[in-house]
Amino acid sequence: MKYLLICTFLLGGLYGCQDSTKSTEKSDESAVLDSGKQTTITSMKADLLLDSKASLGEGALWNKKTQELYWIDIENGLLHIYNPANQQDKAIKLGQRVGTVVPTEDGNALVALEDGIYEIDLKTEKKKLLAKRPASEASDNRFNDGKCDPAGRFWVGTMSMKMTPKAGNLYLFDNEGKISKSYDSVTVSNGVVWSLDSTKMYYIDTPSKEVKEFAYNNKTGEVSLIKAVITIPDGMGYPDGMTIDSEGMLWIGMWEGFAVTRWNPATGELLMKIDVPASRVTSCAFGGENLDILYITTASIGASEDELKQYPNSGSLFAIKTGYTGVPNFAYKKKKKKMSIRF
């Protein structure tokens, strides 16, 4: 596919009703072309969970403390909080495009909006600016995907809304509220996760069709690029949001790929495919009491009328029990100021 064609649809996050999450029915094994070789993998089908009709659903993340799924609609500037217990989905209007959301340790949430990083009080829905988008960023750049690392620091990337190549960056918002650039020259900053032993960081710049591995220092937050560990074959779509399971395998939403895929970062091998009845699969996250439900977000943006007729649930939230479990997500930890007492 031509680069310009993908750019047409990557504006957002390119860039997780009725409870139907109990389905674990496996479809026939499928053959996937990988560098000219036929590889047989297990394939399953995701179930519709919430017919949300999001323009650009993204940022799926499970809050284990509250047993709720956070997700966003980028273009409509909405933070969604889905409660599986009562099957209610609450939407909070943020007033501008939102790139990602993470919980804070004290029960609020951080959201990366177009112009900065905000803390939002989930009870009052009021937001407070914590850090402006760095002045070095182009005026048409906005924040996109991100997550918290094992030390509770917030990692979030930027991208050009004009899709200017290599105009974005990956930033670290530390526990003291300071923001610094960690990696530059990215086009669509997207999925980021950390290895189970907290020594590696995996990161996606979508148009590269690669997952890059970085050496990661959990004490300082410093990273250094090692190599690309996964390369997405032609015809499978483009890698978008990402999560990691309890075995250390990576799960990736495939934009224009109708699927979530499971990969081994040590070998680069494709292990499993979850078929989704929507072309633009954007993110995924393990949730549920036992972290055994994979929640999947999708987008409807850029879809033609014919495509929406064929795939009417584009932009919806899907779920499936895959037989694998995830690991708890990390919350943002704000460093508490030491009180000084004078006598």
The separation of the N and C termini measures: 71 Å
Kindly state the percentage of residues in helix. under 10%
* CATH architectural label: 6 Propeller
Overall mean pLDDT: 90
Total number of domains: 1
Strand content: over 45%
Unreliable stretches covering 5 or more consecutive residues:
1-28, 31-36
The global form is globular
CATH class: Mainly Beta
**What is the succession of H and E elements?**
HEEEEEEEEEEEEEEEEEEEEEEEEEHE
In CATH, what is the homologous superfamily?
TolB, C-terminal domain
Number of H/I helices:
2
Main beta-sheet annotation: 6 strands, mixed
Annotation, overall tally of beta strands: 26
As a whole number of angstroms, the C-alpha radius of gyration is 19 Å
| CATH topology category name | Neuraminidase
Classification by helices and strands: mainly beta
